[in-house]
Amino acid sequence: MQLRRYKPADCEPLAKLFYQTVHSVNARDYTKEQLNVWATGKVDLQEWNSSFLKHETIVAVENNKIVGFGDMDKSGYLDRLFVHKDHQGKSIASAICNELECSIKGKRITTHASITAKPFFLHRGYCVIREQEVVRHGISLTNYIMEKLTR
Q: Is the separation of the CB atoms in 67 and 3 below 8 Å?
């Protein structure tokens, strides 16, 4: 597996990976209704591309196929972190996080972790600040605001 910087041609494959990951990996912790409002399959690719370009965005590639990605803004907000459903448990998310966390030394990193991702972030030394309910199209989803101080 190789890690590399994001390029605009990655945007559509990342959107597809996001949708597939949410609807498979997160299905054990969220209802079908919640998954459908979280990942509708219709992201604004221009908006996503713009945010990926503004953020530190890392893409994981294996055998010329994108298997994961993550992005963090300049303030230390870890926005997205997703690994393809067929590549879970291979330390891909850890490698992406290591890269992103190194890019923001000496700052507090914040993320809004899903129920599914919470154990991963706890293992990495993040602390739960609070549980929250996010409402999308009238459907409530639980996630956790988590933080970690970098060195």
A: no
Provide the domain limits for residue 98: 2-149
52 exposed, middle or buried (CB, 10 Å; 0-12, 13-18, 19+)?
Answer: buried
Report how far residue 5's alpha carbon sits from residue 116's, in angstroms, rounded to the nearest whole number. 26
CATH for 31 = 3.40.630.30
Sequence-distant (6+) residues with CB within 8 A of 36 are none
> Which residue reads 């953020």 in tokens?
55
Confidence (pTM): 0.94
Handedness of CA 52, 53, 59, 64 (dihedral sign): positive
- pLDDT tens string 15-68: 999 999 999 999 999 999 999 999 998 999 999 999 999 999 999 999 999 999
Number of folded domains that form the chain? 1
